[in-house]
Amino acid sequence: MWLINYIVSQSDFYISMILRLAAACVLGGIIGFEREHVHRPAGLRTHILVCVGSALVMVTSEFIYYRYSSHVNVDPARLGAQVISGIGFLGAGTIIKEGISVKGLTTAASLWAVSCVGIAVGIGFYSGAIIATVIIFLILVVIKKTQGKITMQKNARLFIHTRIKKGEVNELSGLIQEMGVKIKRTDFVSSEIDGEMVIRFTLDISGQVSMAELIEAILCHEHVRRVYEE
C-alpha cells in the first residue's frame, strides 16, 4: 500500500518527466530531420539522442536537488554544464577535413545547439526551447537557401588539370590572386591520368577580371594541361 501512495505522490513529477523527454524527442527530431535530409553525418537519430539525453540530465539534476538538497549542498546546474562542455567530442566526430577544406562545422554546431535545447526542456523552460528550435531550424533551412542564392550569383568553380608538382597549388593560387580574383575555397579532385591532379577553385568573380581572361592567363602556365569552368 505504501508503494501505491508513494507513486501517487510522485505522479506529478513522473508526468512532468515524461512530457519533458517527449518534448525533447520532438524538438531534437525537428533539427535532426533537416540534417538527415541533407545527408549529414549526424542525422535524425543522433540529434534526438543528444536532445533527450541532455533533457534527462537536467531532469536527473532536478530530482537530485529535491531529493538531497536538505542533506547536502546540491548545484542543479552542474550536470547541465558538463553536457555543454562534453558535447564537443561528438561534434568533433562530424567534422571532416578534405584537402585544405573542412566540412561538418554546421552539423557540429547544430548538435551543440540541440544539447542546449534539451537542457532547457529538461529543466522545464519550454518556451525558450521551442523558440530556440524554431530559430535553429530557420537558420539551417532558410538562411542556407538565401546564402546559396547569393553564392551562385558571385561564385564560380574553376577546374584546373595540371601536373603533380610540389608547390603547384601555391603557384596557381598566387596567379589567380594576382589577377584580382579572390579564392574562397580549394579542393582536390581525383584524376584518371597518372601524373596529373585536378584542382577545383571556388572563386569570387565579382571583380573586373572576366572568366575568359582568367582562364587564358592560367593556360599560359607551363604545367597546366586543361582549364574549364563549371
Automatic annotation (TrEMBL):
> What main location does UniProt list?
membrane
What does the entry list under GO cellular component?
Answer: plasma membrane
Q: Where in the cell is it found?
A: Cell membrane
> What range(s) does the MgtC/SapB/SrpB/YhiD N-terminal domain occupy?
21-147
Q: What range does the record give for the signal peptide?
A: none
The record's section on InterPro entries has: MgtC/SapB/SrpB/YhiD_fam, MgtC_SapB_SrpB_YhiD_N
The UniProt keywords, alphabetically, are: Cell membrane, Membrane, Transmembrane, Transmembrane helix
Q: Output this protein's name.
A: Putative membrane protein
